[in-house]
TrEMBL record:
Catalytic activity: (R)-lactate + 2 Fe(III)-[cytochrome c] = 2 Fe(II)-[cytochrome c] + pyruvate + 2 H(+); (R)-malate + A = oxaloacetate + AH2
Presence of keyword Zinc: yes
Pfam short name (any one): FAD_binding_4
Keywords associated with the record: FAD, Flavoprotein, Metal-binding, Mitochondrion, Oxidoreductase, Transit peptide, Zinc
UniProt-recorded name of the protein: D-2-hydroxyglutarate dehydrogenase, mitochondrial
Main subcellular location of this protein, as a coarse class: mitochondrion
Cofactor: FAD
Role this protein plays: Catalyzes the oxidation of D-2-hydroxyglutarate (D-2-HG) to alpha-ketoglutarate. Also catalyzes the oxidation of other D-2-hydroxyacids, such as D-malate (D-MAL) and D-lactate (D-LAC). Exhibits high activities towards D-2-HG and D-MAL but a very weak activity towards D-LAC.
Isomerase recorded as keyword: no
GO CC terms of this entry: mitochondrion
One GO MF term attached to the UniProt entry: FAD binding
InterPro entries linked: FAD-bd_oxidored_4_C, FAD-bd_PCMH, FAD-bd_PCMH-like_sf, FAD-bd_PCMH_sub1, FAD-bd_PCMH_sub2, FAD-linked_Oxase-like_C, FAD-oxidored/transferase_4, Oxid_FAD_bind_N
Length: 489
């Protein structure tokens, strides 16, 4: 796991004492809301809260608090602010940049007990829920009402809606439903000093002053703890279908993307890119039968969501025949039923798990102008090979350099799969990848955020004026710096 030689624990932050624990125990009033490693040895119970999903970042917190209400969050933060106790807000702990676990002994405030749906308006589709609601649970609730959550990602079974807002998660449906900056109507958030900010607006339009909620979307818990969300949810499409294509070049992938937008237009709901390397790893881990007979350098998964199953599959069938005829697509298959729909999606959604299963992964979630999207993978693979690190042996630890992602958003997930985290590999990759991105005015973080991993690289995508303004905002909302310290800025 990662160690932090270049970071010192901020001496302004107090060490936890038994009095502090007594205050929180008294406030929360139930054992299920507190894991106390201060007055008792709870190391094993605390472990999952100290270690991130990739097992790459590890903190040493001794106290996990699980508030059950906004008032409890407010009293926790006021106490921490008054007593200089550092805090890490935590949702489902599926973040991939080390933002959701302590760096040292910060208190973890985990939102999992605040997981209720509060209200749903069946006419407007407006959902109000607590931040600790699990994304998949909220989507299932909406499905029962004929609606859909305008966000989907592979971590849906564990990630929280609050964490999704805090990281401004993009995911698999952004092409169709847009970003959380557009779908979120309001939030309730608690500031470092315990102030409860009620901006839980349920109106589609509210043009009365600065749109402050936007600051908290993507702030990664550094200026407040989101406690409630109000979000506009679209009708769930009656008909969903998915096609899986094999293509001979990245040029052809770009052509397929243009054809999909042109021919499928309003029913296109996802366009995901996968390279052969990423698919070979999924095959290696799952041993599932591949969707197509032959192997191709590239694959794309195209999803349609519309109101009329016959009309949509006719349109998709015609599109498939057309792009095959034109030689844009070398081979393709359409899902015939729900089972095939899910199994085709699994070849895209299962990549992250497969990579995690195989050992250490260096992840780069980046935005690049679409025409160069895959060039970064090729340049990185050549660089790792030239450094003599490609080989999947103990001596040459890099198993594969693969690329996949949300083609429609110009968002590539470059992943370097290794047997273990290895200094030599990191030195070859960083800052090379970030410099490559900066030269093309791309973004070093498309959707996963900055966290601990990318804090020191923000300058590759934001100029000093912007970073200065962000610091002013941080100092306005969290002047003592107790919220998620050491990260982000
Ligand atoms: P956590 O990991 O617990 O926290 C993430 C950050 O938000 C931390 O900085 C934390 O301090 C802060 N935070 C959490 N809750 C709150 C709150 N209530 N108030 C304030 N701050 C808070 N991400 C994408 O964008 N797109 C993807 O397609 C995608 N796919 C993924 C697939 C897999 C298999 C995995 C493991 C992760 C994936 N992710 C993806 C990354 C991750 O799931 C998202 O960043 C997600 O939004 C994190 O939600 P969480 O509840 O797990 O937050
Ligand atoms: C995805 C998940 C993280 C990764 O699958 O869309 O956001 O890089 C990613 O595997
Ligand atoms: Zn993604």
């Amino acid at each position: 796991s990662e160690t932090y030689p270049d970071i010192q624990r901020d001496k302004r932050f107090a060490q936890l004492t038994q009095e502090h624990v007594a205050f929180f125990r008294n406030l929360l009033g139930t054992d299920s809301a507190i894991i106390d490693g201060v007055t008792s040895d709870a190391a094993d119970d605390i472990e999952p809260f100290n270690s991130d999903w990739m097992r790459k970042y590890r903190g040493h917190c001794k106290l996990v608090l699980k508030p059950g209400s906004t008032d409890e969050v407010s009293k926790i933060l006021k106490y921490c602010n008054d007593n200089m106790l550092a805090v890490v807000p935590q949702g489902g702990n599926t973040g991939l940049v080390g933002g959701s676990v302590p760096v040292f002994d910060e208190i973890v405030v985990n939102m999992s007990r605040m997981n209720q749906i509060i209200e749903f308006d069946e006419v407007s589709g407006t959902l109000v829920a607590e931040a600790g609601c699990i994304l998949e649970g909220a989507d299932h609730f909406l499905a029962s009402k004929g609606y859909i959550f305008p966000l989907d990602l592979g971590a849906k079974g564990s990630c929280h809606i609050g964490g999704n807002l805090a990281t401004n998660a993009g995911g698999l449906r952004l092409l169709r439903y847009g970003s959380l900056h557009g779908t979120v109507l309001g939030i309730e958030v608690v500031l470092a000093d315990g102030t409860v900010v009620d901006d839980l607006c349920k109106l589609r339009k509210n043009n009365t002053g600065y749109d402050l909620k936007q600051l908290f979307i993507g702030a990664e818990g550094t200026i407040g703890i989101i406690t409630k969300v109000s979000i506009q949810c679209p009708q769930r499409s009656a008909a969903q279908n998915v096609a899986f294509f094999g293509l001979e070049s990245f040029d052809k992938v770009q052509q397929a993307f243009r054809e999909a937008k042109g021919q499928l237009s309003e029913i296109l709901s996802a366009f995901e890119l996968m390279d052969e390397g990423s698919q070979a790893l999924v095959r290696q881990v799952t041993n599932n039968k591949r969707p197509l007979e032959d192997q191709y350098p590239f694959y794309c998964l195209i999803e349609t969501s519309g109101s009329n199953a016959d009309h949509d599959s006719e349109k998709l069938q015609a599109f498939l025949e057309d792009v095959m005829e034109k030689g844009v697509v070398a081979d393709g298959t359409l899902a015939q039923d729900e089972t095939q729909y899910r199994s085709l999606w699994a070849w895209r959604e299962g990549i992250t798990e497969a990579l995690g299963h195989l050992g250490g992964v260096y992840k780069y979630d980046v935005s690049i102008p679409i025409k160069e999207l895959y060039q970064l993978v090729e340049d990185t693979r050549a660089r790792v090979d030239a450094a003599g690190l490609l080989g999947d042996t103990d001596e040459y630890p890099v198993r594969a350099v693969v690329g996949y992602g949300h083609m429609g958003d110009g968002n590539l997930h470059l992943n370097v799969s290794t047997r273990r985290f290895d200094e030599r590999v990191e030195k070859v990759l960083e800052p090379f990848v970030y410099e490559w991105i900066a030269e093309r005015q791309g973004s070093i973080s498309a959707e996963h955020g900055l966290g601990l991993m990318k804090k020191k690289y923000i300058g590759y995508s934001r100029n000093p004026t912007m970073v200065g303004l962000m610091r002013n905002i941080k100092n306005t909302f969290d002047p003592k710096g107790i919220l998620n310290p050491y990260k982000y800025l």
